[in-house]
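1st attempt posting a full record on here, be nice pls
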Amino acid sequence: MPKNRWVNVTAAVLATFVLLSGCSSFGSKSSKQEIDPPQDITYLEDGDQLDQQLDSEKSTSDKEESSKETVKRVLYLIDKNGMVVPQTLELPNTKEVAKQAVEYLVAGGPVSNILPNGFRAVLPEDTVVKGVDIKDGTAIVDFSNEFTNYKPEDEEKILQAITWTLTQFKNINKVKLWVNGHELKEMPVNGTPIGEGTTRKDGINIDTSDAVDITDTHPLTVYYIGEEGDNVYYVPVTKRISNEEKDEVVAAVNALVEGPDRSSGLLSEFQSEVKLIEKPKYEDGQVTLNFNEAIYGSYDEEKKIVSNHVINSLVLTLTEQEGIEKVALKVNGKQDLVNEDGKSLSEPVSRPENVNTGSF
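the predicted structure (as tokens):
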């Protein structure tokens, strides 16, 4: 059972968010979406041959991508609880992917016809994206004056939505905002600092409810469950973690077990008795977690079933951390587990390329 209540999930929704094992091509190092799908590389003795092979594979990939009428992109929208949430939507294929992604954040714009139920776009109506210039990992987004016509309570959400939408692309790590060719050092309504640009490290849906002394904490992003009717989706929340906690994986697991703030409207399927019975093990981009039996939740311990929501929350949360690409699960040292669909968890699980693909 969830910490707050049971979440009924339809088979159709579960199918939209399938986490494949480590050998899957669905995995990626971070939440960044690869513009070009990863290629299998055969190592050759001749360096020139290898270069030619990679050029050929890149060319083939580009042709396949350009031939598609639509492509999947992640947009960060606002849900009914005011949370900034990733939603994977089909957008028309274009070469200006970064500019298009921001344009689809404008209320009343092209996103209107494909918005999931319970969600809204984040940028003010009639905002024009005059350009997106990418250089040395930084995206400079130039808006028209209409960009400044937003409600004060939306200011941080706007900044987070733009930053997380653009940093899905592998060549963007930082975002700067301009209005009519002039750089913003702070947001125009409430004065939220922008400084030299924003990154994912600045957080999203920031929760400081448990932080007594913020100066003695650091940010950590975890994924909880949101819902719209019978459908569920995953919501990133940046919590403040004590600096005394040196292991980020342990801190993340503890935050998932603790669950979201009660006023957030979010849920967790982790039982309060869930514990790691030994320290996480790290090797070649993989982290292995050894839990007690409480990880089974409401499922019969003998069936060794781990909830899909528990798996998804763990994998999304831990692969946000630098250097972690896969998550392997054990219970009392054994890896003979299955998910709700009966699929074996004997192999590590990778992050999906696209998050929250359901159409509500």
